[in-house]
Structure formats: C-alpha cells, structure tokens
Amino acid sequence: MNLYFRLIWLFLWRMRHCRRIGFLDTSVIRYRALPTDCDINFHLTNSRYPAFMDLARTYMLADMGLLKKFLKLKWMPIVNAAEFTYIKDIKPLATFDIETKLVGWDEKYFYIEQRFVSERGLHCIVHVRGVFVCQRRQVPIETLITAANYHGPAPELPAEVVKWKEFLQLKKAQNS
Q: 142 φ, ψ to 5°?
C-alpha cells in the first residue's frame, strides 16, 4: 500500500520539483526503506526493488521533461527483461538513492541502468530492457528518439549490456 502513496507523492509533488536533465543524463531520486518494505531478514525485500525501479523510471521521464508528452501520446512503458545483481542489503529506515540512466537502444529495445546507492555504497545494479507501446503496438525506437528531441548519436551499449542482450537472444532461441 505504501507504494501507492509514494506514487501519488511522485505525481503530486516530486514531479513539480524535478530537475531538467538531458536525454542521456542520470536521474536521481531518494527513498527511505520503511519497515513495511523489509522482510524477516531485516532488509529491503527483493520484491520491492522492481517497484521502486518503476517509480524511479517514471521520475526519470519527468526529469527529462517527457512524461507529460508521452502520457498525452498514450505511450506506456513495458519492461521486457530485467537483470539484477544484489551487492549488499539495505537496512530498515536507511535512505538510498536510485540512479536511473538510459544507456542505449537498438532497433527494438531501449536499455536502462538503475543503481541503488547509499552512504554505504552500491547495493544493487539492475539492467532493464523495454519498449513503449500505444494501442497494443510498439512505438518504434526512432519515433521515441524524435519525440524526445534527441539529435545525437546512439550511445554504445556497455559491454555488460551487450553480453546480457546476447544471453537473452540465446534463451529465446533455445525456448522457441
């Protein structure tokens, strides 16, 4: 339930006070691990990471100045795959930042890196692959880039994302 309150807070307050960042810049949003976010091991439960990440990606779009535009176009983001690496736990009541950055795209997907960071260091790093859809059809990457008013070259995907992409292709091929 507290994630609904965080979502409402995001729409009503935080988006009005977000920074304006470039299309390839890093968006940062801060949260606190409430006791209701934690499990019996007294740390942020694994199921909360994706929920916080959804909020952080929404905030990134607002930081970029694209959220209202994409909502008007009825473009909805869909996660296709995510890869998590947990490094150290986040304790109850600890504050942490989620650093969200678009690291690149290919002919079909965009790729985002999200990092959970606190004063104790890096807690988790996640790579997310996704698309935007409108009326059940994928919005072409070129259309998305144009709507974002980005005119630079596509960044080179990080090596770990390239390997992950190859792994996802292999999984798909073996399970078709």
A: -60, -40
- CA dihedral (37, 100, 109, 152) in degrees, to 10, reads 170
List the end-to-end C-alpha distance of the chain, in Å, as a whole number: 38
Q: Tell me, what's the pLDDT at 68?
A: 87
pLDDT at 30: 93
> The pTM is what?
0.91
The amino acid present at 72, given as its one-letter code, is K
Whole-Å CA distances, 74 to 9, 67, 132, 135: 22, 10, 9, 8
List, for residues 50-88, the tens digit of each pLDDT value: 999 999 999 899 899 898 899 999 999 999 999 999 999
Among candidates 137, 80, 135, 84, which has minimal Cα distance to 109?
80
Among candidate residues 87, 85, 77, 80, the one with its CA nearest the CA of residue 144: 77
Where the chain has pLDDT below 50, the residues are 1
Mean pLDDT rounded to a whole number for the chain: 92
Query: Are the C-beta atoms of 119 and 81 separated by less than 8 Å?
Result: no
